[in-house]
Write a structure and sequence with these properties.
By secondary structure, this protein is an alpha/beta fold. The chain has helices spanning 24-27, 49-61, 71-76, 78-85, 95-98, 101-112, 128-133, 136-142, 157-181, 201-213, 220-237, 246-251, 259-278, 284-297, 305-312, 320-339, 346-351, 359-368, 374-387, 391-400; strands spanning 40-43, 66-68, 88-92, 117-121, 148-149, 256-258, 302-304. The strands form two sheets. A five-stranded parallel beta sheet has the order 2-1-3-4-5, with helices on both faces. The chain has a two-stranded antiparallel ribbon with strand order 6-7. Helix 16 packs across helix 18 (359-368) and helix 18 runs antiparallel to helix 19.
């Protein structure tokens, strides 16, 4: 929660040995400061402190406990602990908070720890100054969330009532889900791009291997699998009012396709949407293309239709492929931000990974083992060791990493 400009401006990068620490391994020898448990965390920049205090007061008058950090506590790293323990997360969104690194890290931690996120703003969601201040990851995270607009300065009561009601609904929903699933389910109120398919990464990659083997042998089970997936996606998407898959729109009748042609079709269909998300950041689209090639092509120069369908998922949903890519991009972006060396919430994230060590978290941490920054690799390795999950995949990578210098 950032402080304002001049004397109120918060230092964006914690000094060595504080919240973000020095080297990756050394920093994790310290424990993250603990914050009181609460219902709601409010992340804000000091420029927006008046609105924060109004919202905090109204929520507390409605018997909701609120944690709204201040500069001194933020440098101690308490916000990360509060976010992990909280039941909901509110971001007071403004050009100042959108450009505040600490606020962005807090949003990222709220996302990976499955908190309902409520963006609150006094501006229109298409305000040019606000959009310019938001980076790709923040836009992607907040796009599907329930926004609360305090645009009418003479009427704060109406949006406040909506916010309070929405927060209470999310808490009730979480409590119900906890009771039903025994605390084993996911609690995100507004999934960024929809729920994951049940197909695991290992299953999908095994299928990819089968496809490549099929070039040499006749595999009837593979043919049956392709037919089953086709029935669940292509045929369903021919229902009036729905659309066919990305593959069929661009490569109908073809069983395999090369990377260059696939990339051209991807940019043709989704380029404009990506441009709107990335604004002036020229490095993000190449990064997304690299992600697509890795996940769909396994970094090879061609892929098969069945491999594409395994990645895409089986639901008859329009643009499901792009949603899958968006989800992977957001997970990778959020994890890298939370575990970066300048993150004020990194220690809290590492210490609490066991609470939300989902397949997505494990995959993102495995990706971070290949990060160019040695400190990030060290944090990822220690984090994987603390999750207690995904050991079959993690242990060989961690052993390989022992030679990392």
């Amino acid at each position: 929660m950032g402080t304002g400009s001049s004397s109120r401006r918060r230092t964006e990068v914690a000094s060595s040995g504080q919240a973000s620490g020095g080297s990756g391994a050394a920093a994790l020898q310290h424990s993250a400061p603990k914050a009181p448990s609460c219902d709601v965390v409010i992340s804000y920049h000091g420029d927006d402190i008046a609105l924060m205090r109004f919202i905090q007061g109204e929520l507390e008058s409605n018997k909701l406990s609120v944690f709204a950090d201040v500069a001194e506590a933020k440098q101690e790293g308490k916000s990360g602990s509060a976010i992990v323990q909280a039941k909901a997360f509110i971001l007071i969104l403004s050009p100042s908070s959108a450009q505040c690194k600490s606020c962005n890290r807090e949003v990222q931690l709220a996302y990976i720890s499955d908190k309902p996120i409520f963006p609150v703003t006094v501006r229109d969601h298409e305000d040019p100054e606000l959009l310019k201040a938001m980076d790709f990851g923040l836009k992607l995270t907040l796009k599907p969330m329930q926004w609360i607009f305090f645009t009418n300065i003479d009427d704060k009561a109406t949006p406040m009532k909506e916010l309070t009601s929405s927060v209470r609904d999310s808490l009730t929903s979480r409590e119900t889900e906890d009771h039903t699933k025994g605390n084993a389910g996911s609690h995100r109120a507004s999934p960024a791009v929809g729920a994951r398919e049940t197909t695991t990464v290992e299953q999908r990659r095994a299928r990819i291997t089968m496809n490549r083997t099929a070039k040499l042998v006749t595999d009837k089970s593979l043919v049956r699998a392709e037919t089953e997936i086709g029935d669940a996606t292509e045929n369903a998407e021919h229902v009036p009012g729905t659309a066919r898959t990305f593959w069929d729109r661009h490569f109908e009748g073809q069983d395999t396709i090369g990377w260059e042609r696939f990339k051209e079709a991807f940019l043709e269909e989704y380029g404009a949407e990506l441009e709107a998300l990335v604004s002036s950041d020229q490095e993000t689209i190449p990064w997304i293309l690299k992600l697509v090639k890795r996940e769909v092509f396994e970094n090879l120069e061609s892929t098969s239709k069945i491999s594409f369908l395994e990645f895409r998922g089986r639901r008859p949903e329009r643009n499901l492929f792009f949603k899958r890519i968006s989800q992977l991009a957001l997970e990778s972006y959020s994890m890298h931000g939370v575990f970066s060396m300048d993150s004020t919430v990194r220690l809290a994230a590492v210490e609490n990974l066991g609470k939300y060590s989902s397949a997505a978290v494990i995959e993102a941490l495995l990706d971070l083992l290949d990060d160019p920054d040695a400190n990030v690799r060290a944090v990822a390795a220690i984090s994987l060791g603390r999750t207690g999950a995904g050991q079959a995949k993690s242990i060989p990578r961690l052993i390989a990493g022992l030679a990392d210098t």
